[in-house]
Amino acid sequence: MDDFDVAELETGETTIFVRRSGAGLPVLLLHGFPQTHLMWRQVAALLAEEFSVVCPDLRGYGRSGCPPSTPDHAAYAKRAMGRDMVVVMERLGFSRFAVAGHDRGGRVAYRMALDYPGHVTRLAVLDILPTGAVWDRADARFALAYWPWSLLAQPEPLPERILAAASEAIVDSALGGWGTPSSTFPLEVRAAYLKALRDPVRIHAICEFRAAASVDRQHDEADRQAGRRIEVPTLVLWGARGALDTWYVEDGGPLAIWRDWAKDVQGRRVEAGHFFPEEAPRQTFEILHRFFRAAR
Questions:
Q1: In 68-119, where do the E strands start and end?
Q2: How far apart are CA 4 and CA 230, in angstroms?
Q3: Catalytic residues
Q4: Degrees to nearest 5, angle at CA 154 with 165 and 143
């Protein structure tokens, strides 16, 4: 992504590292665990031919800042991460924008759509279900397959010590264990993802995914109780070789679950595993391109 412009933007709470390229309607792309903005490298380059594409590192990841954590984990709640992104986009001149998020970034994206309906014009969530819905349906299969949820929910310092002692094993397990071949990730990209897990400050920030087991659930539940739903057009994508394609059949699958949370939902599976933006970038681009172009 060397041809993308680089910026470090102050949000008032932390510093967010951003790469930006293109012109046209603004599109914000948010990464997941254990990645950085680099996960979008191929998709972003294609989208930038028609859109203003912004690829940040979430707080605690990559080259962005790591604000101090708090006992309630609110400093790393998806609400706080979403607040960062709204400020970043405003500072880049975009008061309204579309957003796509994969994995943890997808949770930030849908929280933004709920918290900032005047800013988010279109929402794409990639290979996730709403956080509350995941916990409500969690079983032994989930605990064994998606270990970051249960591991990172543990009090510090246990998860921090495990990630520090076995950073390479953590990255290799994540990148190769959820339906996407490990050969998808070039050595230099894997090294970039691994770098964050060798910094104790970033390890702690990443482990503050504890928010997903606490304050994020509270925010979701408060919205449910108040009857708030996502108002903007919502695209749901999931990997055909990932868990979402088979685990939730009895609930009607991912689209049925998201229709409880959003008013205008469309979506489909992608012929790949969990990390399909990197495994199937052309297919991912084509689907996102059609969805974002419809905003015109």
A1: 97-102
A2: 31
A3: 103, 274
A4: 95
Q: Residue 145's pLDDT band (boundaries 50, 70, 90)? A: confident
If we measure between CA atoms, which residue out of 157, 85, 162 comes closest to residue 120? 85
Q: What is the pLDDT of residue 197?
A: 82
| SS3 label, residue 56 | strand
- Provide the pLDDT confidence category of residue 296 given band limits of 50, 70 and 90: low
Query: What beta strand segments (E) does the chain contain?
Result: 5-10, 15-21, 26-30, 52-56, 97-102, 120-126, 234-239, 265-270
Determine which helix (DSSP H) or strand (DSSP E) holds 176, and give its type and residue range: helix 167-177
Please give the Cα distance from 100 to 27 (Å, whole number): 8
Instruction: Give the pLDDT score at 45.
Output: 97
- Three-state DSSP at 17 gives strand
Q: Determine if the pTM surpasses 0.90.
A: yes
Average pLDDT of the chain, as a whole number? 95
Q: Is the pLDDT of residue 143 over 90?
A: no
Q: Which tokens go with 94? A: 């975009």
**b or e along 1-31 (b: 16 or more beta carbons within 10 Å of the residue's beta carbon)?**
beebeeeebebeebbbbbbbbbeebbbbbbb
Question: According to the model, what pLDDT value does residue 66 have?
Answer: 97
Q: Classify residue 130 by burial, with Cβ atoms within 10 Å: 0-12, 13-18, 19+.
A: buried
Output the 3-class SS for 216-235.
HHHHHHHHHHHCCCECCCEE
CA distance 24 to 26: 6
Q: What is the DSSP letter of 211?
A: G
Over 80: is that where the pLDDT of 264 sits?
yes
Measured CA to CA, the distance from residue 72 to residue 88 in angstroms comes to 25
Structure tokens at 161: 């010590």
Q: Order across the sheet with 234-239: list the strands.
A: 5-10, 15-21, 52-56, 26-30, 97-102, 120-126, 234-239, 265-270
* Stretch among 86-90, 174-178, 253-257 having the lowest mean pLDDT: 174-178
